[in-house]
Design a protein that fits this description.
alpha+beta; Rossmann fold; Elongation Factor Tu (Ef-tu), domain 3; 8-stranded antiparallel sheet; 6-stranded mixed sheet; 15 helices; about 30% strand
């Protein structure tokens, strides 16, 4: 099956053409019949040579533009209607720019009303207008309701539909209603990769149980094309879907901050304008908008007025309402990390041109090219890994003090679950107990320097402040990374031997203990006790339970 959507200016004959093709009416609302125009989306189909083609008839009037965009969402091709007596009109231009923004590049232009004496088919003007659009796949047909043969027009349309294929799998809800005796039904267009298992409804991320599913009054079966489908939900579902919801086989993240690539130029002129984002069958108000320039491409961070879940790679359109301009874009990732959002906003303000997106977002779920390196389900590149490795070697004390998981989430925007895969790329570094460790063996020279430092510190826990600059810098760095030197605070340095003494003291404490109990048993003042306990927390030897400093023993 193929799904078509109509497009074109109000009163140019879209519904008349659809009725001619399908021998059905799509304007069913009383107001539509009284006003003689399409308000809501209309759905119908025709069958030709055992092939079914569905049609979504959209409103042409600008007052119902959000309904129009919802109709475009998952159409395979467009029936773009042009009144031969009026030519290219206001909504013609609006619809065309919106379609190009959505990358709806398979378009059948049909000149209508050829039965009227004032008709004038300006085919050359149309070709001149659309010839600049890259990758546009189109044909031009003519329709005279008095002389055009239905079978011939359908045959011409079907020949065009053989020139492309779709590859999307998302299912955006365009209608939700209740049928007596059946219950809640939702309809939409399902791409060829849409499956019936593990269905989730977004943005509420709820599991959907289906009672039955039909496509054009027949039981649904997965095919090589897209299909109009109706899903009857089980009554056990405690959900009420609505237009704009997304049904997906994938587990998606929900956020009101999103990152996407802009496929049109001059999007940075929109910062102070009223902007709407159209995606699928929904639309959201863009509250804030930040442009990022990367290797002659533009990306953007948008703050939306509501939470959304969007499949990776989904085509979207930004509508600058003030100037009535449309900007095509492609969804990349939801921005769930507040630190990453702040980082990208700061970067957008410096107007710098970056060589790679990985300079801004070190790890993404979207591959940027053949040279990408896989980190779990994420992608990065060798340059980013080298920079992170260098950063670790230069800032390991700071990282270990804060804890690797927390530091990497805030600085490199990567979750703890992916750190194992990340550190597997570094031959000399590993993670143990939320601390960075050096995987290399301790050399004789390292041991020699360690003994000298231990001698300078003495064997008591109230160690003096010593000057490490008199020792080889790289050896001292390696000793820290091996865990043989521990920075407790700016002026308190322990060796692993000192730490063993401290751990022995912790073993003697109750499973839940106070700072006072630790001070009493260790004989340390608050100056040593507080930073030392914080160091033990980072090493997962103890765990702070409350603001009073009460701790739980994590070692047995």
């Amino acid at each position: 099956m193929t799904v078509l959507a109509t497009a074109g200016h109000v009163d140019h004959g879209k519904s008349t053409l659809v009725s001619f093709l399908t021998e059905q009416e799509t304007d069913r609302l009383a107001e539509e019949k009284n006003r003689g125009l399409t308000i809501n989306l209309g759905y119908t189909f025709y069958e030709f040579n055992d092939e079914i083609t569905s049609i979504v008839d959209v409103p042409g009037h600008s007052d119902f533009f959000k309904n129009t965009m919802a109709g475009f969402s998952n159409a395979d091709a467009i029936l773009f209607v042009i009144d031969s007596t009026q030519g290219w009109s206001e909504q013609s231009e609006q619809h065309f720019r919106a379609l190009i923004g959505l990358s709806k590049l398979n378009i059948i232009f049909i000149f209508t009303k050829l039965d009227l004496p004032e008709s004038n088919v300006e085919e050359n003007k149309l070709i001149e207008r659309i010839s600049k659009i890259k990758d546009l796949n189109y044909t031009i047909l003519k329709f005279n309701k008095n002389s055009t043969k239905r079978a011939d027009l359908i045959k011409d349309i079907q020949e065009f539909l053989k020139t492309f294929s779709n590859n999307y799998s998302s299912f955006w809800v365009d209608r939700s209603f209740v049928i007596d005796g059946i219950g809640r039904v939702i309809t939409g267009t399902a791409g060829k990769n849409f499956r019936l298992d593990n269905l989730y409804l977004y943005p509420r991320a709820e599991n959907v149980e289906i009672r039955s599913i039909e496509s054009v009054n027949k039981e649904y079966s997965q095919t090589s094309g897209s299909q109009r489908i109706a899903i009857s939900l089980k009554k056990s579902n405690d959900i009420t879907p609505k237009r704009g919801d997304l049904v997906s086989n994938d587990v998606l993240q929900i956020s009101d901050f999103i990152l996407f690539e802009i496929l049109s130029e001059d999007a940075d002129k929109m910062n102070n304008n009223t902007i709407k984002l159209f995606v699928g069958t929904t639309n959201k108000l863009v509250q804030r908008f930040y442009v990022l320039n990367v290797n002659k491409k533009q990306y953007a961070v948008a703050k939306l007025n509501e939470l959304v879940a969007i499949p990776a790679g989904e085509k979207m359109v930004l509508h600058n309402i003030d100037s009535n301009q449309f900007y095509g874009c492609e969804f990349m990732i939801p921005l769930l990390n507040k630190n990453l959002v702040k980082h990208l906003i700061r970067k957008s303000k410096d107007r710098t041109e970056y060589d790679s997106l990985f300079e801004l977002v070190p790890f993404t779920t979207i591959s940027q090219g053949v040279d990408d390196i896989k980190i779990g389900n994420l992608y990065t590149d060798s340059s980013t890994l080298n920079n992170i490795h260098k950063h670790i070697r230069e800032n390991f004390e700071k990282i270990n003090k804060q804890g690797v998981a927390k530091y990497f989430y805030e600085i490199f925007f990567i979750k703890e679950v992916d750190l194992g895969d990340l550190f597997s790329k570094f031959e000399d570094l590993s993670i143990k107990e939320n601390q960075i460790k050096l995987t290399q063996d301790t050399s004789d020279e390292d041991i020699k320097i360690l003994k000298l430092i231990y001698k300078d510190l003495g064997d008591k826990l109230t160690v003096p402040n010593i000057d490490l600059k008199k020792y080889d810098r790289e050896i001292v760095k390696n000793l820290f990374l091996q865990g043989k030197l521990i920075r407790v605070s700016k002026n308190i340095l322990y060796t692993e031997e000192h730490l063993k003494t401290v751990v022995d003291i912790v073993h003697q404490l109750p499973d839940i203990f106070t700072i006072s109990q630790f001070k009493e048993l260790s004989g340390l003042s608050r100056k040593y006790a507080i930073p030392l306990l914080e160091a033990l927390d980072n090493k997962l030897i103890t765990k702070k339970l409350d603001t009073e400093g009460i701790r739980e023993k994590l070692v047995s």
